Amino acid sequence: MSDAAESHLASAYGRLLALLADSLHVDQFLDQVVRVAADVVAPAAACGLTVRRDGGAFTVAGSGELAAKGDEIQYGADEGPCLEALRRGHVVEVTDLREDDRWRRYREHALRLGILSSLSMPMTVDHETVGALNLYGTSPAAFTGSARRHAEAFTAQATAALTVILRQADQALLHRQLTDAMASRSVIDQALGVLMGQQRCTATEAFALLRQASQHRNRKLRDVAAEIVTQVSGQSPQPAPGFVAPRQQP
User: Fold this and answer.
1) Helices (H), the chain
2) Phi and psi, residue 196, nearest 5°
3) Residue 123 in 3-state DSSP?
4) 133 vs 68, 92, 98, 105, 213, CA distance in Å?
């Protein structure tokens, strides 16, 4: 790889890191990844990113109309290089589609679009292929040699960045779930205290009364508890302190 190529790829890695830091959502990150990929791997005409969803596949981001149409042809035909990369988890290269008969239903329509070559690379996160980065070229053999090495190196870095952002999203979801659970538990505990004082009963008996009221009214336990606290105090229950995730040791 030449010094210029190394510099170009290093610049792309820097842009990936900036995207990782600046993107608030996974979809924003992926939308920018395909644009960087189309710029890094010359002479790529277009780049799309296919992901799995509900047993099927769809394009989550594309650098242009050619990529979007190239992906959609494959979904309609239920065959093609990006679907094979997604399903089998390995790189699929098309050197010259005019001479490649692996996916005949896809091939006919792709040639009409002007697609002559392509490179589809799986993105594997935690041992599961979650997507495929698809490069489309309008000339034959567009992704051989250094172009393929650039593409594979960039995809590896993009996959690593995607792994980080997906894990961050999982942690954010866990944080919200724990916070909601703590808030619900706090409201229920306050209602139990009210019932124990009113009914002169134990916590177990108070919880049975609360659950019975919930079932009878067909309302969530937390909502019934909030109503009891509001009736007694004249104001809505105060939320519990927010959950603070422990810092990981370096």
Assistant:
1) 3-22, 26-40, 65-77, 81-88, 104-113, 146-199, 203-217, 221-233
2) -60, -40
3) strand
4) 12, 11, 22, 21, 54
Verify cis geometry, omega within 30 degrees of 0, for the bond prior to 250.
no
- Nearest residue to 227 (alpha-carbon basis) of 187, 178, 181: 187
What local confidence, expressed as pLDDT, does residue 12 receive? 52
DSSP secondary structure string, 63-107?
A: SSHHHHHHHHHHHHHT-SHHHHHHHH-S-EEES-GGG--SSHHHH
3-class DSSP state of 236:
coil
For position 185, what pLDDT does the model report? 74
Report the distance separating Cα 204 and Cα 115, nearest Å.
70
Q: 139 near 116, Cβ under 8 Å?
A: yes
Could you read off the pLDDT of 46-60 as tens digits, one per residue?
888 888 876 788 888
pLDDT at 121 exceeding the cut of 90: yes
Question: How far is Cα 139 from Cα 116, in angstroms, rounded to an integer?
Answer: 5
Contact 113, 162 (CB under 8 A): no
186 has pLDDT over 60? yes
Q: 67: buried, middle or exposed (CB in 10 Å: 19+, 13-18, 0-12)?
A: buried
